[in-house]
Design a protein that fits this description.
about 525 residues, mainly alpha, Growth Hormone, Chain: A
């Protein structure tokens, strides 16, 4: 495809990239509404709490660990080629996940889905950077970011609808037709592009990045799962991962053809934007993840209704992400980012006051404000990251942004999950002790396990029948107390992000220098 044809078809190409993004993001959010179903031996695969966690974490671990690698390889081997390969892997793994017969098969297939997704995600942003001229790029990135909001809406609501009408595997099998649609349009609307002057391959840099990222993400996930940093494999993974990444940075600063030019971080547009993305996703990830349990376990809504309650928040992203570039032109990136992060902090402050019977319209309104504010911050931040590097290095920059987001998301779920777990166990233990006294024939190990989460407590309450009714209200109150503590931690990190933006984010939007587009397109 020649350059003129690629330019003429750029908006159609963006639609294809959005289809790719929708499939990946929607699938990740679909799983949240299916957790209770998957734990049921009759309706699901009988997965334990730990196995359910790893059904989520296996995807995140592989996805985050390989994002940087495939971003770099896309620059070198061809971005469309990696998109096609990633969609094929993702679609095949989705079908295998749908027909898993055991928790172990489910976890392995989810890991394969993460492998395919890691090939696709960094290419979407780098293709936008190479196809769209600078004056249109912010708008295209805004639509790209808005697609994330659309995927947030599609995932839980579609997942709930499918679960109420079909078997659990349908939430994964639904990916296949969208993958086929994306592949059928790919060769018509997406031009092949690569860095024609890539130099020698940085094999050592790529090989160092993979174990470094995997070890850090593994340590974060395991720490959250066990609510502890004291286990040797947890702190060992974290320390070893940090050590490997220090070696990676040292190598990249000295090699003549680095995969990641560390000089990018000297530009405040790049470094501050990456830091802002990490802080926001850390503080948001755990809250959004555990609100799904609030809807289903505390308010006792069915999966479909819980999915529908995400729609207003997703609508906020869909509306404000495309509008964000226009707002930047009027007020500047720093003022807009300050207003956005401050609004996010207000939402976290509200979550510290949420109750079992808080009116739905209040929660929905603040959820809408939170995601709308994040949209107006993340779109200019993403544009700043992509605009501060040469188009030939777009894949590496996109991978840095997506890797930072995934690590921050994993950290948010792990750290805030540990906070909720600590507070929940402390709140529910007195009630569990009283149940043991009233029903001495109950297995003490089962009672201890019931203190791990609100879902485990509710399972015990059902098994105890009438005697278990005394567990329900305290379990809900204990979970809400944990949610308050997690929201307070999120608020602290949100305020940290506010300080970073205030101190270091440039006041003016990025100035785009003319780019030789033929250097990145073939």
């Amino acid at each position: 495809m020649d350059q003129q044809t690629a330019h003429r078809r750029r908006w159609g190409g963006l639609a294809v990239l959005i289809i790719c993004l929708l499939v990946i993001v929607a699938d990740n959010t679909i799983l949240n509404v299916a957790l209770k179903t998957l734990s049921d031996p009759q309706r699901g695969v009988g997965a334990s709490q730990s196995q359910l966690a790893w059904a989520i974490n296996a995807y995140t671990l592989v996805f985050a660990g390989l994002l940087f690698t495939f971003g770099v390889l896309g620059d070198r081997w061809g971005r469309r080629r990696l998109l096609v390969a990633g969609l094929v892997v993702f679609g095949t793994a989705s079908a295998l996940t749908a027909y898993s017969q055991s928790p172990e098969q489910l976890i392995a297939a989810r890991a394969a889905m993460g492998f395919g997704a890691s090939m696709v995600m960094p290419q979407t942003l780098s293709v936008i950077t190479n196809v769209f001229p600078p004056e249109e790029r912010a708008r295209a990135i805004g639509l790209w970011a808005g697609a994330v909001g659309l995927a947030m809406a599609i995932g839980p609501s579609a997942g709930g609808l499918l679960l109420e009408n079909f078997w659990w595997g349908s939430i994964f099998l639904v990916n296949v037709p969208f993958v086929i649609l994306g592949l059928s349009l790919m060769f018509v609307l997406i031009p092949e592009s690569r860095n024609e002057n890539a130099g020698r391959p940085d094999v050592l840099g790529v090989l160092l990045s993979i174990p470094g990222l995997v070890l850090i993400v593994y340590g974060i996930i395991t720490a959250g799962e066990r609510a502890s940093l004291t286990d040797w494999d947890v702190y060992g993974s974290l320390l070893l991962g940090v050590g490997v990444l220090v070696l990676f940075v040292f190598h990249e600063s000295r090699t003549t053809d680095p995969s990641l030019d560390v000089r990018f971080f000297r530009d405040p547009r790049f470094s501050v934007s990456v830091a802002t993305v990490m802080v926001l996703f850390f503080s948001m990830a755990g809250i959004i993840f555990f609100l799904s349990f609030y809807w289903q376990s505390v308010r006792e809504f069915p999966p479909f209704v819980a999915g529908l309650l995400v729609l207003p928040a997703a609508l906020g992203q869909m509306i404000f992400a495309p509008l964000s570039p226009t707002l930047v032109r009027y007020v500047g990136p720093r003022a807009l980012a300050l207003a956005g992060v401050a609004t996010v902090c207000c939402s976290f402050a509200f979550y510290t006051q949420i109750r079992v019977d808080t009116p739905l319209y209040l929660i929905i309104a603040f959820f809408f404000l939170q995601t709308s504010a994040m949209a107006v911050v993340l779109t200019p931040a993403t544009n700043a990251i992509m605009s501060s590097v040469p188009p030939a290095k777009a894949g590496a920059a996109s991978a840095v942004q997506n890797t930072a987001r995934q690590i921050a998301t994993a950290m948010g779920v792990a750290v805030l999950g540990a906070v909720i777990s600590f507070r929940y166990r402390a709140g529910i233990e007195p009630t569990l002790d009283s149940v043991t006294e009233r029903a001495p024939d109950v297995d003490p190990a089962q009672v201890r396990a019931a203190g791990e989460s609100i879902e485990a407590t509710m399972v015990l309450a059902q098994q105890l029948g009438g005697a278990g009714e005394a567990l329900v209200a305290p379990a809900k109150e204990a979970f809400v107390s944990g949610l308050h503590a997690a929201a307070l931690v999120s608020l602290c990190f949100g305020l940290l992000g506010l300080a970073v933006v205030w101190k270091w984010m440039p006041r003016e939007p990025p100035t785009h220098e003319p780019n030789d587009r033929t250097a990145g397109t073939s």
